[in-house]
């Protein structure tokens, strides 16, 4: 008897489910408002009016973590098809399961890949039963990806430390954690720029960049004037990929070194900003530093610009208030090469770098 009752209940459940069909009408990709999630087509085969609610659950397709849920008001279905839009389900009861979710009813969904799962709930008094279910993947992507700006494609940069800039993706307000990854690779002979990006080890990579520009750092691998380079930028929302730029190429020319022989006044003033000037230094490096911080001690380094920015000398020196005339003996050091380029930099208590570039020579 119990078995017969279960079979009858199952048949009745299947009959109810067959009474309502649902078709979800979502664009597969693009910018999307939360209200667009409620574009549905419901078809009722019942001869009488049917009361239903629609339950929505949106999850992150990459992590499978829930983002938010929504439950509509009761909707009355007549026999036949009914086009459902946001106005038909309002007010919607939302539950937000991730802090970054936009809580505005008509707000834009943040960039990412999602899975929207719908359930049509048949309402009879205090009893609810599932009449139809469907899940549909969709992606929220910017209308315009980030666009490279400078260096221009196939250009030659004067500086060995170029600045890279780009335009943000649009619209920006679909991102709650917009950050960029910038990649530079060498383009080898016979390679296209795309092949180089896909196959070669990066010369430089900047991760989680918040601003649409990167200054090539002095600590990175020195760009070779004889090589061709490709670069691109990827826009991410948090840790999730969103869009990427085209791939551009560039070369570096490097400013012609201006060698200054140390004669007459032998002390060269340290500066915070570097340019193309190189000081010819035989034996002893002589620099002047204005100690405005009244520090009593400072750290300094000598870095090879021709050998992967390797630190060759690291030490401290005593300072007095005002202008200090500093001498760093370099004669006899086997790790310094004739005609090689080096960077001397001094760090004060404010963590500022005061520096200059020089060429080591045995004699003038």
UniProtKB/TrEMBL annotation:
This protein's record includes keyword Signal: yes
Record-linked InterPro entries: Ig-like_fold
Keywords: Signal
Cleaved signal peptide residues: 1-18
Name listed for the protein in its UniProt record: DUF928 domain-containing protein
Record Gene3D superfamilies: Immunoglobulins
Top-level taxon: Bacteria
């Amino acid at each position: 008897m119990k078995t017969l009752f279960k079979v009858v209940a199952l048949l009745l459940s299947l009959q109810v489910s067959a009474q309502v069909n649902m078709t979800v009408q979502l664009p597969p990709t693009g910018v999307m408002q939360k209200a667009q999630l409620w574009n549905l087509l419901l078809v009722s085969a019942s001869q009488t009016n049917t009361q239903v609610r629609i339950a929505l659950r949106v999850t992150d397709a990459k992590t499978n973590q829930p983002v938010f849920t929504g439950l509509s008001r009761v909707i009355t279905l007549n026999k036949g098809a009914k086009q459902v839009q946001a106005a038909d389900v309002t007010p919607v009861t939302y539950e937000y399961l991730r802090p970054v979710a936009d809580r505005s009813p008509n707000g834009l969904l943040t960039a990412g890949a999602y899975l929207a799962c719908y359930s049509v709930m048949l309402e009879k008094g205090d009893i609810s039963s599932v009449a139809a279910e469907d899940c549909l993947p969709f992606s929220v992507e910017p209308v315009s990806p980030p666009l490279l700006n400078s260096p221009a494609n196939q250009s030659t940069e004067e500086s060995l430390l170029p600045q890279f800039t780009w335009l943000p993706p649009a619209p920006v307000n679909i991102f709650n954690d917009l950050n960029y990854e910038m990649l530079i690779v060498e383009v080898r002979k016979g390679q296209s720029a795309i092949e180089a990006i896909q196959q070669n080890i990066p010369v430089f990579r900047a991760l989680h960049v918040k601003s649409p520009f990167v200054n090539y750092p002095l600590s990175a691998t020195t760009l070779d004037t004889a090589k061709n380079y490709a670069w691109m930028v990827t826009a991410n929302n948090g840790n999730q990929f969103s869009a990427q730029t085209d791939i551009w190429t560039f070369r570096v020319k490097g400013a012609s070194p201006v060698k200054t022989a140390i004669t007459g006044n032998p002390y060269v003033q340290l500066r915070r900003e570097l340019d193309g000037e190189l000081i010819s230094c035989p034996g002893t490096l002589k620099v002047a530093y204005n100690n405005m911080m009244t520090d009593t001690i400072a750290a300094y380094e000598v870095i090879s610009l021709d050998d992967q920015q390797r630190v060759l000398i690291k030490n401290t020196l005593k300072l007095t208030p005002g202008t200090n005339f500093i001498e760093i003996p370099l004669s006899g050091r086997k790790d310094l090469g004739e005609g090689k380029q080096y960077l001397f930099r001094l760090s004060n208590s404010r963590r500022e770098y005061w520096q200059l570039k020089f060429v080591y020579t045995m004699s003038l």
